[in-house]
Fold:
Amino acid sequence: MARTVPVSLAVLADFVQMHDSIHNSLGLSKRATGFVLTMSALLLLKSGHALRVTHLRHHRQCLSDDDPEGEPAKWTLRQVFTNGPYHIFALRFASLRIAPATRNIQWLETAITFLLLVGFLLVYYFTGSIIPLVYWGGVFVMSCLMRCGILHSAQAGFEKPHAISGGKNGHPVDTRYFFFCISSFASRVPESSNGVIAKSREGIAGTG
Structure:
């Protein structure tokens, strides 16, 4: 139990690094950023380049009909739990469709992920240790629920306003405005980040 906190913090730090790699905001070369993206995503048993495709599409076409990452925002809370596992695989196929130019690296990272899972099973078979399997299970559950839950909550807040304190002269603030500001900022980042997102686009030719 004492190891749970440091492991969780390490996973969170890795997620942040992976996200920064997706947006090319590490200050590294294109090749180095791609390597960091691959390795940090593999620690979470994911394809980094596949995530980059769907995540940047989410920023460009937030909650549009062609925003596979934002699809959970349209779900009910029950669907977040029932559809979450399938959504992971749906995103993987969507990334292959959106960015055919990066299919090779996506498939390579997917193959490595599969080999890691096989390795976890072999560790359990030969040593009886369930630690790798518990790690995989934890990452899988987080992948299924965390992003889907965040997107669902954000959209629910946008569609169903709640009064919160902090408005001018003590008047309540409509939370729809809060979520609108977040969505607006996210959609404007590519045009206002001094080329950071433009650099990201170099690695996903064909994403449109």
